[in-house]
Amino acid sequence: MPSGQVKEQQEIGKPLARDTSTVTRWLQKYRTGDLSGLLEIKKAAGAKRKINDDAIAALIQELKTGKGFTRYGEIVEWLKKEDGLDTEYGRVYALVRYGLGAKLKVPRPQSYKQDEKLVSE
Predict the structure, then answer these.
(1) d(CA 40, CA 32)
(2) What is the pLDDT of residues 27-44, one digit of tens each?
(3) Are residues 71 and 93 in the same domain?
(4) Is residue 2 situated within a structural domain?
(5) Helix (H) and strand (E) counts for the chain?
(6) In terms of pLDDT, which residue wins out, 104 or 79?
(7) What is residue 37's predicted lDDT score, i.e. its pLDDT?
(8) Which residue range forms the structural domain that includes residue 16?
């Protein structure tokens, strides 16, 4: 191969670490004139959301109200009651804590031994 030209598709795939079928697909797109298709970066669609957009919007509104939630289990129950969604605790936790960036309204713990007068001062 002194001229630097490739004679078989397998020779193209080896230095690029690609299978022959991938090289064949690339060449077919090139031959049909679909050069934009060769440059297109495809992204997998992924799984469908378990909690729909309407339920998320309602949850955001509920989190903004003064009462809020004290436990993530309450949110799971609320979603089941309001929207009929049967979701896992971990999914709800990840959505609320990381997806929405919300924290639950939990009062700070206080000792029962505290002197009320000293605290009010």
Answers:
(1) 15
(2) 888 888 777 777 888 888
(3) yes
(4) no
(5) 7, 0
(6) 79
(7) 76
(8) 9-39
